[in-house]
Amino acid sequence: MTTENDAEAAVNRLLDTTRAALDDLKALEPIVLDVRDLSSVMDWMVVASGTSSRHVKSLADNVLMKAKEQGIRPVGVEGERVGEWVLVDFGDVVVHVMQPAIRSFYDLERLWSVQASQPQEL
Questions:
Q1: What percent of the chain has pLDDT over 70?
Q2: Which domain holds residue 15?
Q3: Cα(81)–Cα(53) distance, rounded to whole angstroms?
Q4: Is 91 left (phi over 0), alpha (psi -120 to 50) or beta?
Q5: Count of domains in the chain?
Q6: How far apart are CA 61 and CA 80, in angstroms?
Q7: By C-alpha distance, which of 70, 115, 74, 114 is closest to 97?
Q8: Which residue, 106, 71, 72, is CA-closest to 89?
Q9: What does the pLDDT average to over 106-111?
Q10: Residue 122 in domain
Q11: Percent helix, strand, coil in the chain (nearest 5)?
Q12: Which of 44, 70, 80, 89 could form a disulfide bond with 75, CB atoms 3.0-4.6 angstroms apart?
């Protein structure tokens, strides 16, 4: 039986592994977003940039390889062929690796860090 502490520790190990994998290949501006209060689909989002399609693919591949070494398999991977934006879905943690122009256009950090504003009373 898995306890809540075990699950939290596993997620923390995955986040550490992801950070290290991105740092190994010099990802640009990696950021970890806590989206637990915003999403029922995932708890954490990791966003990073690569300098080219080859760099983006290499960063995503390194994340996958380092996770596999820890016995962690992805739920899914999207965008590997083109390399403009690769999404690696580990369930509780979703990793987005993008080229800078794509990252700027979609601006996931702003989108996922802004909570729905409440209407103000007049």
A1: 91
A2: 4-110
A3: 9
A4: left
A5: 1
A6: 9
A7: 74
A8: 72
A9: 89
A10: no
A11: 40, 20, 35
A12: 89
pLDDT tens-place string over residues 57-73 = 999 999 999 999 999 99
The residue to which tokens 């979703």 are assigned: 94
Strand 93-98's sheet: what is its strand order?
28-34, 44-49, 93-98, 85-89, 76-78
Give residue 121's pLDDT band: very low, low, confident or very high (50, 70, 90). very low
Q: Is residue 35 part of a domain?
A: yes
Residue 99 lies in a domain: yes
Residues in the chain, total: 122
Label each residue of 35-85 as H, E or C: CCCCCCCCCEEEEEECCCHHHHHHHHHHHHHHHHHCCCCCCEEECCCCCCE
Q: What is the pLDDT of the chain when averaged over all its residues?
A: 90
At 117 the pLDDT is 41
Nearest CA among 34, 83, 28, 44 for reference residue 60: 83
CA–CA dist 9, 2 (Å, integer): 11
Q: Which of 23, 65, 66, 15 is nearest to 44 (CA)?
A: 15
Q: Of the segments 25-29, 81-85, 113-117, which one has the largest average pLDDT value?
A: 25-29
